[in-house]
């Protein structure tokens, strides 16, 4: 298909990498293997557009044009050496993968909303019209943005569910492509195991370890008594809430709208059935990992 399109449209561009180049002189389509295909608008007639839409999916999204800094980061994340000498400077930064439901918000609206929380220019590279990468550069004498503090403001203002996977603070821009690939690789895993709107990479270490382990073998090692206990939906909810509340009984009871004594009774029953007391970190860790494996 590439050769055929190249013969008809000399300006055609193919991108298999994640980020859309966002060149507004081009019209963009999505190929059958999710590659981005761009053709200069001046080369296309209305008849060409109708024909291309029969086997390619037009990319809609009303993306804001790339700033110079976004272009620089795009080159870095494509493993290309930037044209200017900015790369020689040591930059502190972190990569934040974001996602929201498809067709719920235009990219330009999301960028405008995020601008209010950044002291300097915001840097966003879009994968598609509902997910992408936000790059936060650390400025001297300024704090990093606390996404857990702003997430509820954003969601209430935009009326949309947002998810953020926050990467670690880095100083070597050459490692950015590797970190981005890891963030993208584990994003779906993070959003599957953790329902919080803001997650850090360190939060999903247990999930990463499980996904890269022999799950069949581990399942065989989980006692039947524990499996039967964890099939109880109420117990499962109690365990997850207790862990979210840092094993604080009073706080857990409040979150579950349950009397403290009722909660203690259920925990004692669970301990009798399994031999594990999840009020203690060691046992709570075993139960939590078992729950993740079984799910």
Q: Nearest-angstrom radius of gyration?
A: 24 Å
CATH fourth-tier homologous superfamily of the largest domain: Reverse transcriptase/Diguanylate cyclase domain
Could you spell the SSE succession in H and E letters? HEEEHEHEHEEHEHEHHHHHHH
Assigned CATH class of the largest domain: Alpha Beta
Which geometry do the CA atoms define?
A: elongated
* Biggest sheet, spatial arrangement of strands: 6-7-5-8-9
What features would you describe in this structure?
By secondary structure, the chain is α+β, with helices and mostly antiparallel strands. The chain has 3 domains: 2-58, no CATH class; 68-204, 2-Layer Sandwich (Alpha-Beta Plaits), CATH 3.30.70.270; 213-294, PucR C-terminal helix-turn-helix domain (Arc Repressor Mutant, subunit A, Orthogonal Bundle). It has 13 helices and 9 strands. The strands form 2 sheets. Strands 6-7-5-8-9 form a 5-stranded mixed sheet, sandwiched between helices. α6 links the parallel β8 (163-166) and β9. The two termini are 42 Å apart. The model has no long low-confidence stretch (mean pLDDT 84). This is PucR C-terminal helix-turn-helix domain-containing protein. Pfam families: HTH_30 (PF13556). It comes from Cerasibacillus quisquiliarum. Residues 240-292 form the PucR C-terminal helix-turn-helix domain.
């Amino acid at each position: 298909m590439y050769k055929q399109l190249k013969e008809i449209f000399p300006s055609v561009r193919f991108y298999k990498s994640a980020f859309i180049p966002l060149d507004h002189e081009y019209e963009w389509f999505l190929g059958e293997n999710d590659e981005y295909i761009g053709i200069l608008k001046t080369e296309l007639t209305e008849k060409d557009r109708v024909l291309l839409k029969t086997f390619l999916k037009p990319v809609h999204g009303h993306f804001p044009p790339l700033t110079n800094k976004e272009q620089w980061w795009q080159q870095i994340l494509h493993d290309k050496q930037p044209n200017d000498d900015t790369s020689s400077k040591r930059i502190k930064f972190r990569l934040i993968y974001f996602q929201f439901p498809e067709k719920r918000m235009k990219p330009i609206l999301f960028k405008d909303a995020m601008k209010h929380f950044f002291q300097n220019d915001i840097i966003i590279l879009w994968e598609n019209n509902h997910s992408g990468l936000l790059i936060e550069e650390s400025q001297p004498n300024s704090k990093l943005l606390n996404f857990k503090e702003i997430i509820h403001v954003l969601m209430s203002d935009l009326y949309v569910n947002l998810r953020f996977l926050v990467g670690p603070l880095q100083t070597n821009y050459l490692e950015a492509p590797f970190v981005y690939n890891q963030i993208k690789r584990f994003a779906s895993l993070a959003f599957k195991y953790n329902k919080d709107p803001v997650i850090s990479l360190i939060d999903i270490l247990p999930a990463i370890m499980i996904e890269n382990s022999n799950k069949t073998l581990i399942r065989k090692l989980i006692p039947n008594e524990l499996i039967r206990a964890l099939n109880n939906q109420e117990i499962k909810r109690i365990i997850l809430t207790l862990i979210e509340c840092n094993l604080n009984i009073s706080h857990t009871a409040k979150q579950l709208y349950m009397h403290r004594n009722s909660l203690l009774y259920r925990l004692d029953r669970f301990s009798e059935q399994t031999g594990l007391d999840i009020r203690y970190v060691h046992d709570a860790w075993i139960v939590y990992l078992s729950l993740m494996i079984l799910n």
